[in-house]
Design brief:
It contains 2 helices and no strands. It is mainly α.
Length: about 60
Amino acid sequence: MYNFLWQVRRFSGYVFFGVIIAFLFFLAVTNNGIGIAEIIFLLILVALFAYNFTFKNNGN
């Protein structure tokens, strides 16, 4: 059961990273310039992903 949850966490991490890339692509297509709100939102997403990635690496 724990291994199953571990796989779900790893998969959700990859999906989250894909969502970030899709969001960047969406911004590039819809906007010519990126506003401050988008930059803050992107920084929050990257910070959450980095925290999740390091947390997964530290815990066996």
